[in-house]
Design goal:
Its EC number is 6.1.1.22. By secondary structure, this protein is α+β, with helices and mostly antiparallel strands. The chain contains 13 helices and 18 strands. The chain has helices at about 45-50, 100-105, 105-110, 115-135, 175-185, 220-240, 245-250, 255-260, 270-280, 290-300, 355-360, 370-380, 390-400, and strands at about 5-15, 20-25, 30-35, 55-65, 75-85, 140, 145-150, 160-165, 165-170, 185-195, 210-215, 265-270, 305-310, 320, 325-330, 330-335, 340-350, 385-390.
Length: about 425
């Protein structure tokens, strides 16, 4: 307090009261109230401040002092003000209400709003927490390719492209490559963009999204669930510790997040079916779960719930069957509470070469595209497991957002490729 400072930023909002102009100036790190008092500046500067428009870029110099009404809050008493650039036209996103399509069309500008600023900072904290968790727990980051010759789960929901005359796809997962990395490093993870060409318009789907995918050698399903549980608790705790201010801006009730503690409830797929039936859903064994079903299942728990051992027919070719019931997969989905659905999906992989070959045939996948993947079983096969966490769904859950379109700077959806 009492220190002379210079802020460089943009005018977020302005109001005047007689001999005072209150300028809300954002500089990327936050928003500071800068007060222009008629008796402390030249008449020219006072008049100039009165005509500033939203998003004018400024350089403000003044003295830090405590806010007159809010204890513990500080403002800047302006002594000098320099206009660096004025908007060429009226800023399109005013403080009034705007429709979603309009805001999405102006996403490049909407990012400047207080709400979007808070979301992006929470997202950045989640990403940092993800990296720090794996980096500090013996994992090695391995970059998976974006172009792939094969699909993890079939090609019906992949973006295809030409790769120097050969067909290729934008990756839907780095998992298969992480299995190769686990054989080299023991514990590996990839973190990058993935792509799904699903023709879906739900609030949980994007065409381009980010995933973190760890894979661990000599890990079974129980160990995989332990890892996913510990990891998710660590990420949520980190955000609560470091981004309280941003969560307050988003008006996020943090009590549900504070209950994200170990142990998570673990239920079998068949128990989940019974939960749905008791809730009035016409659910039967063999049904997959969509967003509505996941919401109902999670409503009975105050923290994430792990649903494991789905029917093998619902899962990708690489899942290992439960040796106690060959009709079930050794898989797990982690459903976030409050209706946010699946944030983690994973499980144990089939390490037996002949069984994996048979599964590839059953799923009618091209064997030649997976020869390299089968080599992992031909040369020193080993039990292993892993999972994938979707960053955007996690951001939506932690921030309490109704739609994933706000969780990524420039969302790519079924009918949106711009800006």
């Amino acid at each position: 307090m009492g220190e002379k400072v210079t802020l460089q930023g943009w005018l977020y909002n302005k109001r005047s009261s007689g001999k005072l102009h209150f300028l809300e100036v954002r500089d990327g790190s936050g928003i500071c109230q800068c007060v222009v008092f008629k008796g402390e500046v030249s008449p020219e500067l006072f008049a100039r401040a009165d005509h500033l428009t939203q998003e004018t870029s400024l350089r403000v110099t003044g003295t830090v002092r405590e806010h007159g009404k809010l204890k513990g809050t500080f403002e800047v008493g302006v002594a000098e003000l320099e206009v660096l650039a004025e908007p060429a036209r009226e800023y399109p996103i005013s403080p009034k209400e705007h429709g979603t399509d309009f805001l999405m069309d102006n996403r490049h500008l909407w990012l400047r709003s207080k709400r979007q600023w808070a979301i992006l900072r929470v997202r950045a904290e989640i990403v940092a927490a993800v990296r720090d968790y794996f980096d500090s727990n013996g994992f090695t980051l391995v970059d998976a390719p974006i172009f792939t010759p094969n699909a993890c789960e079939g090609t019906s929901n992949l973006f295809s492209t030409d790769y120097h005359g050969d067909p290729a796809y934008l990756t839907q997962s780095g998992q298969l490559y992480m299995e190769a990395a686990a054989a080299a490093l023991g514990k590996a993870y990839c973190f990058g963009p993935t792509f799904r060409a699903e023709k879906s318009k739900t609030r949980r789907h994007l065409a381009e999204f980010w995933m973190v995918e760890p894979e661990v050698a000599f890990l079974d399903l129980d160990g995989d669930m332990d890892l996913a549980e510990d990891f998710l608790v660590s990420v949520v705790s980190r955000v609560l510790d470091k981004r309280r201010k941003e969560l307050e801006i988003l008006e996020r009730d943090t009590k549900p997040l504070e209950r994200v503690q170990k142990p998570f409830p673990r239920i079998r797929y068949h128990e989940a079916i019974e939960i749905l039936r008791k809730a009035g859903h016409d659910a039967k064994v063999g049904d997959d779960f969509g967003g509505d079903e996941e919401t109902v299942i999670s409503q009975g728990f105050d923290r994430p719930v792990m649903v494991h051992r789905y029917p093998i027919d619902l899962k990708a070719f690489y899942f290992k069957r439960d040796p106690k019931d060959l009709s079930l997969a050794l898989n797990v989905d982690v459903l976030a509470p409050e209706g946010y659905g699946e944030v983690i999906g994973g499980g144990q992989r089939e390490e037996d070469l002949s069984k994996l070959e048979q599964s590839i045939d059953v799923h009618k996948l091209p064997r030649e595209a997976f020869e390299w993947y089968l080599d992992l079983r031909r040369y020193g096969s080993f039990p292993h497991a892993g999972f994938g966490l979707g960053i955007e769904r996690t951001v939506a859950w932690i921030c309490g957002l109704p739609h994933v379109r706000e969780t990524i700077p420039f969302p790519r959806m079924l009918n949106r490729l711009h800006p």
